[in-house]
Amino acid sequence: MNWISYLQKLFLAFPTTLSQQKVLDVAIPDLTFTMVKYGATETPWDLRVLLYRGGAKGNPKTVFNQIAEGKLGRPIIDRMGLVKIIHAEITARLVGGGARETASSMIRNLRAFFSWADEFDQSLSLEVIEDTYRHWCDYLLSQVQLKVMKNNSAYSKAQIVSIILNAVLDRAQSLILTTRLKYKKRGTRAVSVAADKQSLTDTFKFGHLCLDIINSLSYEAIFGSLPIKIQLRDGREIEHWSGLRDPATVVSLQPKYKNKHTTEKVKRQRDNWEADGTLNTRYPTINLRIMAEMMAFIGQTGMNLSQAHNLLLNQYTYSSSTDGYDVRAFKNRRHGEVLFSIYNEYREVFENYLAWRKKVFGETSSRLFPFIRTLGALETKSFSFKPLQVNICKAMGIAFVSPQKLRNTRVNWLLRRSRDPDQTAEQAQHMKETLLQVYEKPSLQVALVEIIEFWKKNDPRLVGTEVACPAPGSCDGVPTSTSDLPPEAPKPDCSNPSGCLFCTHHRDIDSEDYVWSTASMRYLNLTILPRFHQPAKAKADSARHVQMVIDVLTSKLKWFSDSNAARKAWVEEAQEKLNEGDYHIYWRHLIESAEGI
Q: Residue 55's closest CA among 43, 40, 70, 44?
């Protein structure tokens, strides 16, 4: 920790006289965030709630009224220094380009921390904040042990608060590392072949559903009569009422309903809604198509959800790439940098979307995916996929594939298809290490395929080609005794050279080297034959094995010698080499060892 910086902050943050305490007791500094844009119904962020006991736990929409009415008492002066520095740190992050969502998460988790401190009467002054934080982490760990929350959820909460406190206290070591909370990394497990195939099947079905929604929700269909029909390729049909309930579920529209006045009123309201063919009534259907379009876009480009959501509309140009098109923004007759890449088949879908979007929104939005917000929510605010996930996928029995899972499936599909981590990482806009550590999902199916391919290339029994065997010649690596094999003959086992001569898969090679090797093997057996003694009664004659090998080798050499002049010359040359002590390299050491006995 930088103690000089810490003491400077401590000195600036805390009043030094009673008069200053009285001023701060009444005049609380501005703890809002004026640089943040809020929706029409969104409550502005204000860290004043952290100064009052119970304020952090209060409802953001009513807690400031309680503060103004004095229901939460007076601000706790001991917290003032800490809260001021926290506010300064978050403000600096926002001004420096930090994400709004990150700041929101920090404030949310800080409120949880302060709320716990209020409940258990823990001090939140700068001097003891480290100890209080550790006590909170111990509390979170106890909640994990009691199965109230999961370990990684507790760690995530503590980690976010640790990040801001590290900056506040100028700590070199992260504060969370001094606690007993530890992140448990989930081991990546390979799924079964069936589950692996099922995952891809679900993804394909979901993709088909998104395309069916896109094709069904044309401009004319959306602004036509209700319900809008969504035709699925499997023959099923979805009725979409664009914000209205299905008449079959409205009690006042049922034949047995007796209050005709209410029935007429409901019918009139529904007729007015249907007649108002504007964005005010058709926004649920428009948002549904944009969701389907965004899912198709993410599946094609591999972008994450936040990137796709924040894309701005451009005039696009296409240039051919290996698998499809690189899409660029057209600026001043020049091609800009590549924004994303798509496959050939998707270009028509994307251009149809751009035409539909222009017809629906005109020039009213600059976003590529301009979701229509209600109740004054900001365009940048995250949105829910519930209309697609629940109202469509769940109703039709089709698994919903989230954007994150869709991106993950795409990355793994590319990796399996190319088996090239560098190329896949480049296409997915990741570092290779991130791809392999975070996104790659072990696949039992891929492992099986790779093992089979390996053995096809390296196991002679699967390759089906002749390979070297222990004896002179070649075979396919599958030992099979000949049909007329005598009981005393050596048995084929792919390890004993003598046994190879009595295997149906053994093959001669028409070459001088093979003749030399065969002659050398025969010479070896002739050398060791005299070493055998006469067997005792009722005992097997081991020399009989050797004699049978010699007979087979002799017959092979005789065939070569009798076949033609060239082969006869090979046999004669081999015999001369043996007479000179020049043995084949494969048998040389064995022969020299046998002769030395």
A: 70
